[in-house]
């Protein structure tokens, strides 16, 4: 069996840290807990990320990079169902590849921690809402729908990793698309134009 690359190790560590930060908060997540989750020693983890704050920053940078990349991919599309489906499709892929990242993204939208980490997490909301072309101040209902759609993806991504079900990525996309107020392929699909 080939040894994992440095990138694969970093990806595993950042995904585990994102999951634990989303689930327990930054304060309650120790370096030891993260090391245990990935099967490394605390010393080995600290060799890669010298402090918990450095690891936190690496996780936040990864989440921001992922969502900014998605926002950039849809920036030229007008707001509406096609853009929403493109964003949901990209986030669904993130959820399947790394549910912790999407769970942390959702935590950032909820602004759940009153701390420096909580303030840093709030920065995540800007590119998310930009990707969906929504201003939470002027359209709070749509902002809630966006959070609900991402919540569905985050929960399903974690659940599918822990206990695989006969659900496809397209099913996840449809559920989240429905949460945005659009009718999916199960009802009316705006891309296909059929009932």
What does this protein structure show overall?
The structure is a single chain. It is built from 9 helices and no strands. By secondary structure, the chain is mainly α. Helix 5 packs parallel to helix 8 and helix 5 (81-97) packs across helix 9 (169-179). The protein starts with 5 loop residues before the first helix and ends in a 16-residue tail after the last helix. Mean pLDDT is 81; it is low at 187-195.
**Unreliable segments of 5+ consecutive residues:** 187-195
Q: What class do helices, strands and sheet pairing give? A: mainly alpha
Q: Could you estimate the helical fraction of the residues in percent? A: 55-70%
Q: What is the chains' assembly state?
A: single chain
What shape does the CA trace take? globular
Question: How large, in whole angstroms, is the Cα Rg?
Answer: 17 Å
Q: Helical stretch count? A: 9
Estimate the strand proportion: under 5%
How much is the average pLDDT?
81
| Largest beta-sheet characterization | none
- Could you state the order of secondary-structure elements as H and E? HHHHHHHHH
Please report the distance between the alpha carbons of the first and last residues.
Answer: 50 Å
Number of strands: 0
